[in-house]
Amino acid sequence: MLEALKEEVFQANLELKRQNVVIYTWGNVSGITEDRKYMVIKPSGIAYEKLQADDMVVLEVESGKKVEGEWNPSSDTETHLVLYRRFPKLLGIVHTHSTYAVSFAQAGKAIRALGTTHADYFYGDIPCTRALKEDEVKKDYEKNTGKVIVECIEKLQLDPLAIPGILVKNHGPFAYGISPKKAVENAVVLEKIAEMAFRTLLLNPESSMESYILDKHYFRKHGKNAYYGQKK
Amino acid sequence: MLEALKEEVFQANLELKRQNVVIYTWGNVSGITEDRKYMVIKPSGIAYEKLQADDMVVLEVESGKKVEGEWNPSSDTETHLVLYRRFPKLLGIVHTHSTYAVSFAQAGKAIRALGTTHADYFYGDIPCTRALKEDEVKKDYEKNTGKVIVECIEKLQLDPLAIPGILVKNHGPFAYGISPKKAVENAVVLEKIAEMAFRTLLLNPESSMESYILDKHYFRKHGKNAYYGQKK
Amino acid sequence: MLEALKEEVFQANLELKRQNVVIYTWGNVSGITEDRKYMVIKPSGIAYEKLQADDMVVLEVESGKKVEGEWNPSSDTETHLVLYRRFPKLLGIVHTHSTYAVSFAQAGKAIRALGTTHADYFYGDIPCTRALKEDEVKKDYEKNTGKVIVECIEKLQLDPLAIPGILVKNHGPFAYGISPKKAVENAVVLEKIAEMAFRTLLLNPESSMESYILDKHYFRKHGKNAYYGQKK
Amino acid sequence: MLEALKEEVFQANLELKRQNVVIYTWGNVSGITEDRKYMVIKPSGIAYEKLQADDMVVLEVESGKKVEGEWNPSSDTETHLVLYRRFPKLLGIVHTHSTYAVSFAQAGKAIRALGTTHADYFYGDIPCTRALKEDEVKKDYEKNTGKVIVECIEKLQLDPLAIPGILVKNHGPFAYGISPKKAVENAVVLEKIAEMAFRTLLLNPESSMESYILDKHYFRKHGKNAYYGQKK
């Protein structure tokens, strides 16, 4: 079942490797069916070199039960499920340990919107969640990771497609999008702008960008009056 | 029409990718005919892997109207046009989001001339423009980006071929040259010297270079008494 | 003799190169037979491009004498032997001069556990030994390097498989594991988390992680209740 | 004439490119005949991709006159000649604009001996020369660059084979050795240890290494009692 989505999720996982945002088995990509009944995700701890489309694992979104696949799903499966259930616009989710993004997550700092590269993809600062509490870690850790992400997005009243990424404190980035492929692109760009923000802050800790530049760049590429790229 | 220039601009765009100063569809290169009637530029938002010489877009410089090409031109087209109109010596223009240069642009800091690598290509500091004002961003943003570049170059009384690059605040670098190919080389070198300047300033914020070293290196490579390289 | 182990150690040495943690002849990997009688190690100062499995050198662990091999063993051989003798669980040892790890070693600073990437592999801070004293350097330097590593591990009461790496002050990292291959993986990850820690500390010198997150990530991947990856 | 040396110098120039310490036509390598009559050096400003062994230029060391070759020699030719004339043990010289080394040169700071990676190749700090004075730059600039290097080495009473590299202030590194190939290796290692020193100093500006560690590592690899590598 779901051959096309498996292939899509598989290719998106390989793209993570090609874009140098993961080493070894770090990182995972998932996708969801349009009716939001099934999620397809990378198996846990299998080397990218050995991965095939058929190794992707299928789970029922509501129950979280595996319905197809030889392997255990990614250990971060519960986090993905929480996000898909809460945000019906997300069709792909990515988790990586890309190094600049992880550095901000470990420092407990948001990636502030400092330039147009950021504004072309993320409509505002990329937030960093609070740390999980002891009981949230000890029990249902991966589910609670999802909940802390949801809490942060709700508290800041963000649209997860307008700011399609977040940092989990002491952990690393999650990115999302309207497809597994787009989620990977957002994860790659998140890493690139983390790199730029890191150096910007070392050069000038007071750096900032006016909100009207953020508006302009975001909306010239997204939304109904967008004029970047080609008419579809 | 203009097959040779299209090929030249196409190759220069691919070179941006080979030199690792762009990812995805970021960055664009343009060229202009010798009579300065037509500009050739990369289409907007087309993946480099799919790009062909024939996809390049031709515009009339004076009117800014597209005269050939299937696609929309780069969203930065108006910026290129302003620069070609104002500086008749420029025959190629490049825009990238290369990471070190963007970091300086986001920090709002010029790339100061700190060594001979800089002096071999840029005869003085590479300036950073002021931020655009709200009305300049809201209306005719790309044209106003060009105007702010022109304003900065004029205010500092620079020769854009002697300092063939600039940073637009909160945005990133533009570079230019006597051909699309040369403009790309200047963009690549601008990124390299931004990398060097970044580390130099972390090691010693008081770093500086005597102007007679700047003179020497610039003029041993450029101008009528240049002795670097081979006689043409 | 020991063809399989030689091949394993040889492949692990090549992997160091592929993972970009060594240049030239820097770095070495060893393995030990299950009965802990013989150690196999890379020869000293032979270019990786010319290396063959047959070039690996075999030494008797107890006496430290070479029992097979055309070449001199790695100059760090005595350090490896001290570690194998003291820690019977180690089956592979790696030494590199990977740049971020060396930077911490030169700065005399531990790589603190600041995030889950660290916790997935190292159950606590990766310590930095004290500097060797003059007499320890002048006589039996390599053996004393091993002894200083042992001293540091014992003083901190660490399990070398739970924190499978260490920094020798002013020198660089040693990593270990339950096979030569796993030791290389630990060396590669040690470098990656050093890179992340370096940037984290520049962004926020006060960064830290709660111990319950360390516990969770370490034990979801290691130990008897681990659930990361696939059942063996 | 000198086909073997031309080939050697040519290959050493290509190695600079392979090791990523130069881009475009930056950097040059030279060699000298054993009787020290002739120097072979890369031509000025020719793309590495087009370079052939036959393009190498031959000059008479004493007079500095070109005796063979179609092209102008490297613009840094006079610097190389001054060094060969003054230091009879040098058989190869390299100049690059590798980025970490240039950063130290631009900051006007020596690369201090902070660890064993440094000590394996350089027996002490890699000094940075004073800046050239105005008259030294205006007339005979390249020759005076050589003289300032000589002045610095003499003042510090260094053996240029024991510390086979130096930084010219606001410019970049020169490295040397007992062959063009060895000089390139020293240039590559100089860049690597500059990278390590840069990060070490950001982590801990007070970092230092005891001189007995420097002695040990240098002499276990160099000199008559060396035991690193294989007996020749």
Automatic annotation (TrEMBL), chains A, B, C, D:
It catalyses: L-ribulose 5-phosphate = D-xylulose 5-phosphate. Keywords: Arabinose catabolism, Carbohydrate metabolism, Isomerase, Metal-binding, Zinc. This is L-ribulose-5-phosphate 4-epimerase. The keyword Isomerase applies. Pathway: Carbohydrate degradation; L-arabinose degradation via L-ribulose; D-xylulose 5-phosphate from L-arabinose (bacterial route): step 3/3. Gene3D superfamilies: Class II aldolase/adducin N-terminal domain (3.40.225.10). Residues 7-198 form the Class II aldolase/adducin N-terminal domain. Belongs to the aldolase class II family. AraD/FucA subfamily. Its EC number is 5.1.3.4. InterPro entries: Aldolase_class_II_sugar_metab, Aldolase_II/adducin_N, Aldolase_II/adducin_N_sf. Its cofactor is Zn(2+). Involved in the degradation of L-arabinose. Catalyzes the interconversion of L-ribulose 5-phosphate (LRu5P) and D-xylulose 5-phosphate (D-Xu5P) via a retroaldol/aldol mechanism (carbon-carbon bond cleavage analogous to a class II aldolase reaction). GO terms for molecular function: aldehyde-lyase activity; L-ribulose-phosphate 4-epimerase activity; metal ion binding. One of its GO terms (cellular component) is cytosol. GO terms for biological process: arabinose catabolic process. NCBIfam families: PRK08193.1, PRK12348.1. The keyword Zinc applies.
